[in-house]
Specification:
By secondary structure, the protein is an alpha/beta fold. The protein is built from 11 helices and 7 strands. The protein is globular, with a radius of gyration of 22 Å.
C-alpha cells in the first residue's frame, strides 16, 4: 500500500464508544480496514449494543443513540468474529495507542478473548503527525502570527507570544467563547472534565473518586485505600503532581473530598 512495506496484513481500525475511559467504556461501533500484502483490502463495520445507555455527550460526538444499537449484537456476540477477521494483522489508526487499543483489548478480555498485542506491531498515525508537525509555541507563532519566534525559551518573549497567539486564535475562530470560564470549559479535554486534579489522575464518577491510571484504573480510590494502602504509599514516594498527592494523602487518613456541586 503506497510506500508502506508490509510483511503481513495490517488492520486500520477505529472505535466509537460510550465515553472516553478505556477502562470502563464500551464500543458502540467498530470499523476495520484490513489490507493484505498483495494490496487487496476489505472493510467491515458493525454497530454494537454496549449493554448500557449511551450518554448524550457521547451521542453528540458520534451521532449514535440508544435506538440505533437497540437491535445490534453485543461485543460478546461478535468478538470472536472480529478477532478472526483481524487474524495476525498488525494494527494501525489515529490516536489508537492511548485509547482504541486499550479499550478494544479490554473488551476482548471481558469476553475471555485475547487481542494478542505482544505479537502485533502498532502504528499510531497521530504519533507521526505530532512528531513531524511540531505543536510547540514556535509553531503556533509561525501559524497564527506569521513570523518566527526567535526568542523561544526566553520567559518574557514566550509569555508575550502566548498572549498574542491567544488573541489571534480568538480572532480566527469566532465560535470560541470570549469569556474565560466558558473558554476553559470548551477547550478542557473531555477526559479531564470530571477530573478532581489538574492532571486528571482521579475523576469523579457517581460521587466517588476513581483512578484513571495504573493497575487500579477504573477502581474507586476508597476501595484501594481500604484494600491496598501500599499502592497509595508508592504514589507518595514517586513524582506525582502535588494536587494528586494531596488527594492520596487524605485517602490514607480516611478523608475523601466531596464531589463538586453541579
Amino acid at each position: 500500500m503506497g510506500f508502506l512495506r508490509i510483511q503481513r496484513a495490517i488492520a486500520f481500525f477505529d472505535l466509537e464508544t460510550t465515553g472516553t475511559d478505556p477502562a470502563s467504556d464500551r464500543v458502540v461501533e467498530i470499523s476495520i480496514l484490513r489490507r493484505e500484502v498483495d494490496g487487496s483490502a476489505e472493510t467491515r463495520t458493525r454497530r454494537v449494543n454496549p449493554g448500557r445507555p449511551i450518554p448524550p455527550e457521547a451521542s453528540a460526538v458520534h451521532g449514535i443513540r440508544d435506538v440505533d444499537v437497540r437491535d445490534a449484537p453485543t461485543f460478546r456476540q461478535i468478538g470472536r468474529g472480529i478477532l478472526e477477521f483481524l487474524g495476525d494483522a498488525d494494527l494501525a489508526g489515529f490516536n489508537i495507542v492511548r485509547f482504541d487499543v486499550p479499550l478494544l483489548s479490554r473488551e476482548f478480555r471481558d469476553c475471555g478473548l485475547d487481542l494478542g498485542l505482544a505479537r502485533r506491531r502498532v502504528i499510531d498515525v497521530m504519533t507521526i503527525f505530532h512528531r513531524k508537525e511540531p505543536r510547540d509555541l514556535a509553531a503556533a507563532v509561525r501559524f497564527y502570527l506569521g513570523r518566527e519566534h526567535h526568542s523561544a525559551h526566553s520567559a518574557e518573549a514566550d509569555v508575550l507570544a502566548a498572549a498574542e497567539v491567544l488573541e489571534a486564535q480568538l480572532e480566527r475562530y469566532p465560535d470560541l467563547p470570549r469569556d474565560v470560564t466558558d473558554l476553559e470549559r470548551v477547550i478542557r479535554p473531555e477526559v479531564l472534565r470530571e477530573a478532581a486534579d489538574v492532571s486528571g489522575k482521579f475523576v469523579w464518577k457517581s460521587g466517588e473518586l476513581v483512578f484513571t491510571f495504573g493497575k487500579h484504573a477504573g477502581r474507586m480510590l476508597r476501595d484501594v485505600a481500604r484494600e491496598q494502602k501500599d499502592y497509595l504509599e508508592w504514589i507518595l514516594r514517586n513524582d506525582f503532581p502535588s494536587d494528586a498527592r494531596q488527594i492520596v494523602e487524605g485517602a490514607l487518613r480516611g478523608s475523601f473530598p466531596e464531589p463538586p456541586a453541579r
